[in-house]
Amino acid sequence: MKISMIGTGSFGTSLAMVLDENGHDVLMYGRNDDTVHEINQEHSNKNYLKDIKLNETIKATNDLEVAVAHGEMLVLAVPVKAMRTMARTINVILTEQNKKVLICHVAKGLELGTHKRVSEVLQEELSENNYTDIAVLSGPSHAEEVSLMLPTTVSTASVNESGRKIVQDAFINKHFRVYENKDLIGVEVGGALKNIIAIAIGILDGLGFGDNTKSAVITRGLHEIARLGTKMGADPLTFMGLTGVGDLIVTAMSEHSRNFRCGKMLASGQSLDDIIENMGMVVEGVNTTKAAYELSQQFDIDMPITNVLYLYLFEELSEEEAFYSLMMRDKTSETDGLIALMKNRIDSE
Questions:
Q1: Residue 140: what pLDDT?
Q2: Any idea which positions bind sn-glycerol 3-phosphate (predicted)?
Q3: Residue 95: pLDDT band with limits 50, 70, 90
Q4: Residue 194 is a catalytic residue
Q5: Which residues participate in the annotated binding site?
Q6: Which pLDDT score, from 0 to 100, does residue 5 have?
Q7: Which residue has better confidence, 214 or 333?
Q8: pLDDT class for 342, splitting at 50, 70, 90?
Q9: Which of 63, 131, 249, 301 gives the lowest tally of CB atoms within 10 Å of its CB?
Q10: How far apart are CA 270 and CA 274, in angstroms?
Q11: Which residues carry a binding-site annotation for substrate?
């Protein structure tokens, strides 16, 4: 299969390696001429995957028209904030080329302002005549480990069964296992909202809090993800899977996670603007925190961790005030969250 990887960041590069290993004809697209040259001539991408050697069969181009013309499937590995513009441009090219492709995105976030999931953004910008399906590939998958071919398991979801089966078949191999999932909303929401909790855990780690505290925030954070996700139309059971608790654990507990690292840097006294400027990669959890906070207000959903993090990031709430507001909330029941949502889901069947 001819597949174009739109984006030359760490995750896009690691996924290109998976696809190449599976025998697909992979062409990467990137805007940076130096990165494209490095991939083609040196067979590396050291800005993102320092010590990884790429197969010579992986090629790159800085011409988006060439990349779109090449691919039967386009894998969009660009940040959420760039997704709408990229989709709009690709749509024009597909129309000019009179071409229909399968679209798969790997972004994890909500669009700022509209609060839309990435597949919704793509549906708005792509003409129905230009794509067969829009899928997402998501789950606990650090690019660094994928590139080292360490065992990784993810999920793919789409509206149409045929689309997600093609994505599953394209990516699955002995070290990269792909499950299919019917719940497109849940898979996208879980992948987006876990970044919020990862920033919070990074802050706690940087401030010296222990495993007890971090475990509590991860667990209660999962409840918040499920509350909002279910309100948005997701199946609550999805959040007990790879794109829920699985992705939450890997993102909130690893130095590989840029969201976790962002939290640690904040705890050390660095400003959010400086962190974003110096990170070198997009910290999706920052914008997603704002979007989720606004959605919690819109839907009148109790999301205390998200709300406190929003105030900490954007309203200068102190660490002491944030900790006090979480620990001294009104008494409630543990089952007023994910467990209750799951029970209601099971009872309704």
A1: 97
A2: 108, 139, 141, 194, 247, 257-259
A3: very high
A4: yes
A5: 7-12, 31, 48, 108, 139, 141, 143, 194, 247, 257-259, 282, 284
A6: 98
A7: 214
A8: low
A9: 63
A10: 7
A11: 108, 258-259
Residue numbers in the known binding site for NADPH are 10-11, 31, 48, 108, 143, 258, 282, 284
Q: Which of 2, 50, 100, 194 is catalytic?
A: 194
φ/ψ of residue 304, rounded to 5: -60, -40
Per-residue pLDDT averaged across 151-165, rounded? 96
HEC profile for the chain? CEEEEECCCHHHHHHHHHHHHCCCEEEEECCCHHHHHHHHHHCCECCCECCCCCCCCCEEECCHHHHHHHCCEEEECCCHHHHHHHHHHHHHHHHHHCCCEEEEECCCCECCCCCCEHHHHHHHHCCHHHEEEEEEEECCCCHHHHHCCCCEEEEEEECCHHHHHHHHHHHCCCCEEEEEECCHHHHHHHHHHHHHHHHHHHHHHHCCCCHHHHHHHHHHHHHHHHHHHHHCCCCHHHHHCHHHHHHHHHHHCCCCCHHHHHHHHHHCCCCHHHHHHHHCCCCHHHHHHHHHHHHHHHHCCCCHHHHHHHHHHHCCCCHHHHHHHHHCCCCCCCCCCHHHHHHHHHHCC
Model confidence over 290-332: pLDDT tens digits? 999 999 999 999 999 999 999 999 988 777 776 656 665 555 6
Q: Please give the pLDDT value at position 278.
A: 86
Query: Which residues belong to the annotated binding site for sn-glycerol 3-phosphate?
Result: 108, 139, 141, 194, 247, 257-259
Domains in the chain, CATH or no CATH each: 2-182 (3.40.50.720), 185-347 (1.10.1040.10)
The stretch 142-146 carries a mean pLDDT of 96
